[in-house]
Design a protein that fits this description.
It contains nine helices and no strands. Helices cover 75% and strands 0% of the residues. The termini are far apart. The protein is globular and about 35 Å long. It is mostly helical and 162 residues long. It has one domain: Orthogonal Bundle (TerB-like).
Length: 162
Amino acid sequence: MLKRLKAAIEGMRQSAIPKAEAAARTEPARLACAALLARAAQLDGRLEQVEDDAMLRMMVERFAIDTTEARAILDEAVDDLEESNDIYRYTKVLRGSFDEAERIMLVEMLWEVAYADGVLHEFEAQLMRRLAGLMFVDDRDSGLARKRALDKLGLASEAGIH
């Protein structure tokens, strides 16, 4: 009960904050991560619930935040993507904020979102190759991250990966 009350109060407080102030408060690396996850989820032309759930779960786990904050960051990221489709600026922030292991972990998260609906769309595959290169994650590490994501989702055998 207290958790719901706290979430409701936090939601009212968040809605009272002007959008520019809220954007200024979001850590750039969190916003960049959320934007890339959202881009990967939406690239096939539709955002399915399983993809949205995966993004939310990953933001909560990766940044140790609650679902309300994760949802706010994802919503802000989607708005930001609508204003500009430039993924380079997000990868630049992440290259400066994340070490190599964190960038590889992000690539794994992106693979997991891309496969969340059980299918890798051609545009999603192209985006993943591009993002891995822009984040200085080599093909081998990206391939291993892809395999781990498929294993987590139980899709490794369907994708022919052992």
